[in-house]
Amino acid sequence: MPGTAVPDLDHVLSLLGPALLRPLTVLPAGPVPVSGVLIFEPRAPLPHARDAILLAVGVGTAGTQAKELVGAAARAGYACLVVKSFGDPVTELVGAAQRSGIVLLAADEGLAWHHLDTMISSALASAVRFPRTAGAPAVGDLFALANAMAGMTGGATVIEDPHRRILAYSTLPGQAVDEGRRQGILGLQVPEGPDYDEQYRVLAQAVRTCRFPAVRGGFPRLGVAIRAGSEVLGSLWIVDAEGNLDSAAEQALCDARDIVALHLLAARAAADAARHRHADLLRRLLADPNSATVVASQLGLDPNQPVAVAAFTAASATEDRLTAHAATRLADLVSLRCEARYGRHACVLIDGTVYALLPSASSPTAQRELVSDIARRAHGALRVPVRAGLGSLVPGLRSIANSLAEADLVLRALTDRLGDPEECRVATIEEVWAGATLAALGQILAAQEAMPHRLGPAVSAHDLAHGTSYASTILAYLDANSDVAAASHRLSVHPNTIRYRLSRAEEIFGFDLADPDERLVLWLRLRLGDSW
Length: 532
Hints:
The model is unreliable at 133-140 (pLDDT under 50). By secondary structure, the chain is an alpha/beta fold. It contains 18 helices and 15 strands. The protein has helices spanning 9-16, 64-75, 91-100, 113-129, 139-153, 179-187, 194-205, 247-287, 292-299, 324-342, 364-382, 400-416, 433-446, 456-466, 470-479, 484-491, 495-509, 516-528, and strands spanning 21-23, 36-39, 52-55, 80-83, 103-107, 157-160, 166-169, 210-212, 221-228, 231-239, 307-314, 347-350, 353-359, 386-390, 424-428.
């Protein structure tokens, strides 16, 4: 059609998201027009299709067929070639694509080719309907889609995200709804309960539409999981109030999955972009509180509004810090819960620690309960110990450094706590003031280059090199106020063993346990560990 805008590849990829398609070659600096999508048929000549996307169905990335297809597709005018690597090397194929001037894309291996074909076609249509200047399809389109589904099937329709939050629902008059759906719409969250849990478990494992009986006196429902490849993006539900929804309704739900998935991916991409902007603003604010006025306006906050900083961290059983992927998951979990409570919100991951900005919309008690809830949920999801520190409420963003420092000190106090069996701990500065004071003291002493750096590190290094236990023995002895019997009981060794180790340590390291000043400094060095 004359005057119709041609979709741009970068726009299409942003709609689909990296979970579905990711570039293997560097995208050209200029726009790459995309005219359509075709499926490769090895038994037929490759048709000419200027600026189209070619799906390399049945073509592995390791053989010569893929490289030959790259050249043939480039000569036939295609803009992109989509492959699935299944773990095979792609270096040679990437080089061939770059030499041929064609964009090489990798698809999620768990996504069926016909689903990918449908979703790319939907993305192309959406890119025409929603150019960049108009914004991507968002939740408003999901409401229209929910109404369309309700009108087609005759049942009230709901679209949910993976966390059972209701994103859109049909609003056609005269459609029957039960109490569970009514409560969900009012709170935009599906009510909790074992019956619902079982339905969602079954739905996540199914590949087609599922029928579910009535729950809690409500109506039967039809549901289908919304996926992008192997990732569950959400679910689509229809109420069968009259009990007469037939196989046509089931098929309608299946047919709607791909377009719903596209809209969910587009909405998530927009939300991710906003979340990243907020994270960058919070990172700037934490580094420079003097930017509070500028940052506050962009975060939608009053710079004089009281706020608190919460800090979250976690570690695996074998590592002090989480992997980058797990740390990102922790940040997503924190952000999700804070956004559910506060709406527009800022959360940022810095050096393995997740920082969240908590406005004073609730009391300090409610803030602590929120932080505790987040920590418990994060521990349940990540299956690793989680620590959370809550800084004090400060009078405005310009004072945020004080709350940040407290949150960091609380984290350090919780992390350094010896023999702590709990896998989820949350505290404020008042609750761990002694440990936080030691952590602050360690930071101060570590900054003093003129301070003698011996004793503690030397003892620990000797233990590491020779397999001895001098550090733990000295620390147990000092913790017990120089009581050998108490130290031996704590370490489960004979008192004479304690005496021998202490005497031998004095000979090796040259300190005098009879000197009260040396005892204090030695205890501090061993207690503070790497922080001093």
